[in-house]
Amino acid sequence: MSSGGSDLxxxxxxxxxxxxxxxxxxxxxxxxxxxxxxxxGNVVTVDAPVTICGDIHGQFHDLMxxxxxxGDVPDTNYLFMxxxxxxxxxxxxxxxxxxxxxxxxxxRITLIRGNHESRQITTVYGFYDECLRKYGSANVWRHCxxxxxxxxxxxxxxxASTTLTPTDGPPAPTNTTQLAPLDSEIEIETLNAAxxxxxxxxxxxxxxxxxxxxxxxxxSASSPTIPTPSNIGPAGTSATSSSSGSPGxxxxxxxxxxxxxxxLIDTIDKIRLLDxxxxxxxxxxxxxxxxxxxxxxxxxxxxxxxxxxxxGADIVKCFNYKNDLSLIARAHQLVMEGFKEMFExxxxxxxxxxxxxxxxxxxxAILELEEDGSNAGFVRxxxxxxxxxxxxxxxxSNVGPNTSNRHSSxxxxxxxxxxxxxxxxxxxxxxxxxxxDGPGRRYRVFEAAPQDSRGMPAKKPVADYxx
Amino acid sequence: xxxxxxxxxxxxxxxxxxxRGGGTRGRGRGRGPPGSSHEGNEAxxxxxxxxxDQDAAGxxxxxxxLGYLLDPYAQFFAIQPSTRRLPLLNRGTYVRxxxxxxxxxxxxxxxxxxxxxxxxxGAGTDTxxxxxxxxxxxxxxxxxxxxxxxxxxxxxxxxxxxxxLYSKLRTTPPSSPLALxxxxxxxxxxxxxxxxxxxxTLAIFEDGQLPSLPNLDPSTPTLILSEMCLVYLQxxxxxxxxxxxxxxxxxxxxxxxxxxxxxxxxxxAFGRTMISNLSTRDIHLPTLATYPKLADERLRLKSQGFSxxxxxxxTDFIWREWVSEDEKERVAGLEMLDELEELExxxxxxxxxxxxxxxxxxxxxxxxxxxxxxxxEG
Lengths: 467, 378
What we know:
The complex is a heterodimer.
Chain A: H1 5-16, H2 23-37, E1 43-47, E2 50-53, H3 60-70, E3 78-80, H4 91-104, E4 109-111, H5 119-125, H6 127-135, H7 139-148, E5 154-158, E6 186-191, E7 197-202, E8 253-257, H8 268-272, H9 285-291, E9 293-294, E10 300-302, E11 309-311, H10 313-322, E12 325-330, E13 339-342, E14 347-350, E15 364-369, H11 420-427, E16 441-446
Helix pairs in contact in A: 1-4, 2-4, 2-7
Chain B: H1 5-15, H2 42-65, H3 87-109, E1 116-121, H4 128-135, E2 141-147, H5 149-161, H6 163-166, E3 192-196, H7 201-204, E4 222-227, H8 235-249, E5 256-263, H9 269-280, H10 286-290, H11 294-304, E6 309-314, H12 315-321, H13 325-332, H14 340-348, E7 350-357, H15 364-368
Parallel strand pairs in B: 1-2, 1-4, 2-3, 4-5
Antiparallel strand pairs in B: 5-7, 6-7
Helix pairs in contact in B: 1-2, 2-3, 3-12, 3-14
């Protein structure tokens, strides 16, 4: 597969058809992927708009459903939070497709590591056996594991809008609540796979249940549905004036990580300092980031998984404040509804494997974050430039809105960036302020791909039960 | 017990043969008209039985090898080398087995000198009798297993092949294989009995004569065990089978109890998926719809005649409440378990229900199980 190009496109086409590619091609793709990934920091900076996805677990046909619902690559920017492999029957095809897409469109897709991207776990949970079965040797598994070691540990999404552009879709038949009016500041929208609106909450809506903000309604909340003009200033925007009525309040960044926090990590910079290019250790900060879970406890607790920790609301809120985050997005835990916001929307679990293990009956979700100031979230950026290192999400780094064309790269906002490290250092001494408004969040919920689309009657998934 | 249902499922399906042409699992064979191709499917069905039974036995061995369960006998019923099962399944098998062990242990240790009778319905490759012999060498146990001839024949075969098994059936050395014909399907002795019997025949003889169950003692306190067995039958049939024991085989005032292990909650997303998945394997669970919740299980026990106690708890509750902290730590340390949410989901969809009729004085089961906590909700 010399220099990507058509060979790579052919591999992508083959994988999209759920057919494995030859071993030598796997080796080449993995080599190229490593070259790309080695250049990424432990925490990748990703510009909104981006669609955040949780566990896939080898459910290839459901990954295709995800792309159908969320838009194809490269039209939609994607951030996958790990656990591509194990459990499902098509770990190989799923991971290799994502990896090929990464090599083909490196700025359009971000892959971070999950706890299953590990030699030890894949030997227990299926990926190793699948590689042996499909290739007759463990070579492909070995190539993939080498890639695993280079996957980033987290991502930082910057430039996400605090309000959503309302989706122009009909209410879902299941909808029983009043949809927030279109001219309100939309904080959350949940759509089904048919693009019907399951519910829509305004930022000041009392219906937003667990996502309600401890804030008063802004007198200037009559923000237009189609904001004028588009603001590309990183984070800060006049359209996010809901909480305190102070225009220009920036939304913080969104940290994406597979599992959660670690007692050894109090700043994002500490994640950046880890030596990640290794098998997932049994303990320590790197392990925790991939294994931990939020839980209704105070402080830290032991994880019943045997790795990582449980962490409570106080930990999340403190971490978010200290690191100027508005939200932590993570995966790792099955949630029947596809996503679950906790701790006053300071953290969300996104789960993208519908009917997990062909047994659990759950729906899946992906989380769309719009570009700040965008007046049409469905208009995607046409280039893959990114403002790496842009510090626009940093508290106080922006005062007024920057007017610029929404089609330009958010990198245009670099002028505001002072470098995350410096600002974070300064932050630790700053006076506590109210927590940030989270980004506007559009959840697209979808079910498992129809059985007949799988085209595999001979190898029908058989779920185990205690019978 | 890990999935020893497997072999009984296809057999039980023959009971429903008047409705379905017992097709081979997963082949998508259409349902036939009443009684269709019954004979023709026999071989294929038996084959499926053997495969699933060995799968089940291997699964149990996996659990033993990893240290979840102590069961030196499981290996003798596994022909194929076992493959390691997912931690999720090992954990579930552990909870189920240890929960039933606990109820049985409390039965065995109450009035330890008094004889005890256990009737295991659809016992399959269950090793409980052999484990009990080791654990309570002094106890007087009258143990009965009832299963289809294909299963009991295979089981007796395994027993005959292994001195570790048949020696447990002998009270005095030197031990030698049992004096049985080569294809024997039943075995009877004062302590261990294997009855080759289609359980539904117990429901047919309403007013007439019930099938003989040799050595079943009508006056010995009896525990009936149904691990994923009765759930495959129609509720009305199950009720008649239980009545046969309560009224005829072990009539009052002999204390009698029933311990059920079976799924619950068929109507939520997981439950619906389970029913749908199993039906593609041509497995149906009629009483699951009849008794969807813990409360239904309790009520059913009570109205059946287990009037002195009728309790139920899901296996998630049992893991949390019945298993000691030390033991939890030990089990959790055996394998890294990444499927926590899935495990919880799975465990919440299975229950142990136990009910009893104490009959005369003493309140044997009431005493034995007084400290066994049930789940308040559900």
